[in-house]
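for ur thesis appendix - LysR family transcriptional regulator. copy paste whatever u need, i formatted it the way the template wanted (i think)
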Amino acid sequence: MSSLTPPERLARDLDWNLLRTFLVLANASSVTDAAERLSLKQPTVSSALKRLEDRLGKRLINRKPGRFELTAAGRLLYDEAIDIHGAILRLGTVLAGVEDEVSGHVRIVMASHVVSPLFDATLNQFHTDHPRATLSIEAMASRSALSAVAARRASLAICLVMEKIPQLEYKQLFREHFGLFCGPTHPLYGREGVTTADLAGHSSVSFVTDQMDDALRSVAEMRAEAQLDARIVGTSPNLEEVRRMIIAGLGIGPLPLHVVREDVERGRLWRLPPYEAPPAIDVHVVWNPHAKQNRAEAAMLSGLINLIDSTPTDRRIYS
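the 3d part is after this line
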């Protein structure tokens, strides 16, 4: 019998729990922080890291006073460990669809308060066709949603995209347009003939992704052009909470026009300039083509993509 190669010996002997501990360490600020997250004692975590480094023959984390960061080898291991951890997490989901193709669970992560008739129609058709399948939908910041799909912790994401992660696939679901709004107690509420210059210096609230280097860059540019106070007094990743702060009078803030149309009609919000060429944001469906899907996940994704492809582009632009 031929002897095992070094990679084969590593696959046979490596304790997979060490990789799980390493993933927590890689996202922690210190060994003590990682120990708290794992509900373990600090020496136990330090020992696990040392065993992993000894087994691999590489230093994985530079840990000195004031410094705790992955080495080049640690970064490479982190990328591989993410895939392994994601595959393990998905075992139960994959096996759930073995006996019956309409069983299985679909986990969708999405930006908050996505308003899309296409997505709603897909949910309805999916449940009609596969009543034994289950769904979970979790709202989170778009960047977190993309990370969840990349790490195979989610079936698909519906979110904003600033920079595309190469290993993921993308499909535009719809395009929405943003405007600036204020609430009933704001001094500009109800005023006709307001110009962009009138907004200068007023306090503002916005989304955490409203940054020049993030998904809502065009919205950040709109705020900058209005010369609102550079200090944002309130932020949230959740559209409902940004809306709440605007209505409560904390400041002027951006919201999708089609989402808050009823709020404007009922007097809860007042639209402010600019009125022409409002910034457009694309919302995408994102999935990981390298993730092994159960039958329910495959059915959900194919149903949504097919509906998008059969819907004219102009019917997927909301303003």
